[in-house]
Design goal:
- It contains nine helices and four strands, in the order αβααβααβααβαα.
- By secondary structure, the protein is α+β, with helices and mostly antiparallel strands.
- The protein is globular.
- The relative contact order is 0.21.
- Bound molecules: adenosine-5'-diphosphate.
- It is found in: Plastid, Chloroplast thylakoid lumen.
Amino acid sequence: ALAVPAGVYMLQDQQLQAAELERTFIAIKPDGVQRGLIAEIISRFEKKGFKLVAIKIMIPSKDFAQKHYHDLKERPFFNGLCDFLSSGPVVAMVWEGEGVIKYGRKLIGATDPQKSEPGTIRGDLAVGVGRNIIHGSDGSETAKDEIALWFTPRELVSYTSNAEKWIYG
Ligand code: ADP
């Protein structure tokens, strides 16, 4: 072990605990990336007051896509969906904030963009259910699993935003 004083670890642990609000996994799918919607989508989460704690761009393998969507493996569109997710760059992100899992889904809108309200990401920016540009975790268990699938713990950045006192009071 490195000669690091015990207190240093303590401080890091406390900081992690103190900073950790609810987190969700959000991905801009290949259609959103190809259509030049990365900044538009990030902007909606950012302007709401949620905090970006991890981000990367990658082309997932088909095997990886199947892991991500394992809950849907019995669905008829599963294979096409996994082919699609692995067909190009995906922007993978973790967003943090009070109620971010549920409200993130609200920002995203219904699965079928035809049923998404105007004002939502899919409602405003997408048309077809197979090209609905964004993914967001649907609950706290999936959020935890998806964050762990897409990111290593070291890629998650815990920090306090100066805006937090203006967002949460
Ligand atoms: P969500 O992404 O809103 O959580 P699901 O988990 O039910 O929705 O489905 C995952 C993804 O599978 C959807 O975002 C969509 O891209 C795709 N999908 C869902 N239903 C269909 C369908 N009927 N036909 C083609 N693709 C679909």
